[in-house]
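To assess whether ligand presence alters the predicted conformation, the chain was also submitted together with beta-D-fucofuranose. Input:
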Amino acid sequence: MKKVLTFLLTLALALSLVACGSSGGQSQAGAQTDRGQQGESQGGAAGSAEDTLTVAFCQYANLNNWRVTQTNDMEATMKGAGYRYIYTDAGDDTAQQVSDLEDIIAQNPDYIVLAPREEKGYESVLAKAAEQGIIVITVDRDCEGEKATYIAANFIWESENCANYMIEQLGTTDPVNIVELTGTPGSTCAIERQKGFMDVVDQHDNYTVIASQVGDFSRTTSQTAMENLIQSYGDEIDVVYAHNDDNAIGALQAIKAAGLKPGEDILIYSVDGQRDALQAIVNGEMELSVLCSPYFGETVLEVINTLENGGSVEEYIQNPGKLYTAENAEACLDEAY
Ligand code: GYE
């Protein structure tokens, strides 16, 4: 039974290790523009002012490449479609994001695209939007409250793949000590990336998570956290499991600064598919980054078009992912952000 399972896992892994190139079709291309200012602006040519839709994008922060890429893609796609565009950036503060939503609702847009910071805290403001007939689409993380759909990656799949790839490399007999650097506390991706990883790791006695610290999807926070972990555990650490590439790159810097060799003394597994992570894989300093695409504009556009034409949409729309490893990272550098 165990053999069959191992075979199936290896097969699943092999299938998800797709090469790069135009035929892959796994990542959505998105035009990039300079980051938008807060406020409202008119997009490209479309019908008269009355029949132009207004779309608001409520971003929770722009603290890393992933977020900036998401923000730029959303602005370019919505303006490219000719919509009136409202944009807010809550500066990594949930209470501020709720207040941004209040301001957006006061402007009565047709749609709100919400990238929520965490899962809780938005219920009453989303009820207000619904009362006013404003359609809400959540992107990349979910939150409680009324919405038409939730578009995101499968965080459980991402984190199971981190664990499976690690197990494929390190086996099921020798003891392996892991430190985990987590994302924004209370966010869907931090909750599920921990769960998916632990569900796999818990099946093998030789793997132990010796410490877990908040990296907050930030390079500087993660670097400091990793410095402290190296001080406490030193040579005992075999693996860093990072909830995103900023956590991974921060850890990588701390490992190097401590005179240790990433890729030899400590192996790093992560999620996002950021360019710096792919480069680290090419350099032999990271093992894996699982793609979590920051491009949502095209899917949001499809949702809006479907709803405007009287159609219905699924309550969860999944963004596809894939694995970047030493086998394909170099060939994929150009598609990374
Ligand atoms: O992994 C990270 C970003 O919510 C899925 O947030 C997203 C995560 C992504 O800041 O880089």
